[in-house]
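Exam revision sheet. Question 4 asks you to relate a sequence to its structure. Input first:
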Amino acid sequence: MREKWDELEAFLSEDSEVTAKEFCLTVAVAFLLGLVLGMLFSPKKSITIGSNNIGAGWGDEDEDED
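Answer key, structure tokens:
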């Protein structure tokens, strides 16, 4: 295990240049991964956005007339 750690440290200590394209792609991937993980691990909520009355009152003119 120590050998693998030493290899990783040697790999990360090397100087390398990151292009603007690679940097933007890395930021985009990190952002999207955060969105996906946030949706997967968020607690279930019973919040409804909107009035939730789909179809209510549509074509029911006969029942509304008194």
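Marking note for examiners. The two ends are 81 Å apart (CA to CA).
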